[in-house]
Amino acid sequence: MIIWHNLKYTFISKWSSKTFVNVEKNRNSDNGILFIFISLAVFTATIISFILDQKFDNFFIHIIVWILSFFVYFLIFKSKIIQSLHIIRNKIRKSTSWSPLIKLINGLCWAAPFGLGALIPSMHEYLILAGIGLGNLSTFIIFMVNNKIKNMDQLIVGIISLMSIGIIILLYNYDIIVKSSGDFLARILISVAYGIGGIYSSILKTE
User: Fold this and answer.
1) What is the count of structural domains for the chain?
2) Up-side HSE of residue 34: CA atoms within 13 Å toward CB?
3) Dihedral sign, CA of 185, 61, 59, 53?
4) Do 169 and 17 touch, CB atoms closer than 8 A?
5) 54 to each of 44, 49, 181, 198, 206, how far by Cα in Å?
6) Which of 58, 66, 140, 152 is the most exposed place for a label (fewest CB within 10 A)?
């Protein structure tokens, strides 16, 4: 009787362990889809806006293009995105345990560069990359230290975004691109960063 219970317990434990791993892999895959969704939407909106900018100089047209780009890809990845949003909601719940100082630092990492971008248009391309880079990198570090969660896709996006600042500076210095193309290139690089992070998360099942 004792042997039977032990065998039963061992079987259930192994089954639960395998099921848990599969669920985690699915969650990571869903998170990857979310990043791929962002990458495709940003890339599409950037390209279309660039083309339209040659003929139209209307700010509202660009807003419509960006909204439609995200909307179309949302419809394509709808089910996966909804699953991923549930995961994000659970992560946000875990972030409520963060101290007020950590929340402030994380918020500033995301918001401060974008706010400065509006105040200093001449550095806008650097600052949007800094916002994406510092925001993702700080979130990765805080979750890893406080919650023991390694969002490797966010680490990848953060590092690539920050490295992209150096890439743009080099392209400027060697006159490969002109200053007026900086915002366009920054958005393309953000799309690339999210794309690589999303593919890594989806294929390699990061934890």
Assistant:
1) 1
2) 17
3) positive
4) no
5) 16, 9, 12, 31, 41
6) 58
Structure tokens at 179: 């200053």
CB 156 within 8 A of CB 193: yes
Exposed, middle or buried: residue 91 (CB in 10 Å: 0-12, 13-18, 19+)?
middle
Phi, psi (5° rounding) for residue 94? -70, -30
| Structural domain harbouring 193 | 2-204
**Coil vs helix vs strand at 97:** coil
pLDDT tens column, 142-192: 999 988 888 899 999 999 999 999 999 999 999 999 998 999 999 999 999
Confidence of residue 108 (pLDDT cuts 50, 70, 90): very high
Q: Compute the distance between CA of residue 80 and CA of residue 32 in angstroms, rounded to an integer.
A: 9
Q: First CA to last CA across the chain, in angstroms?
A: 39
Q: How far apart are CA 70 and CA 72, in angstroms?
A: 6
pTM of the complete model: 0.82
DSSP 3-20: HHHHHHHHHHHHHHHHHH
User: What angle do helix axes 78-95 and 59-76 make, rounded to 10 degrees?
Assistant: 100
> Residues with Cβ < 8 Å from 123, sequence gap 6 or more?
116, 117
Angle separating helix axes 2-53 and 152-173, nearest 10 degrees: 30
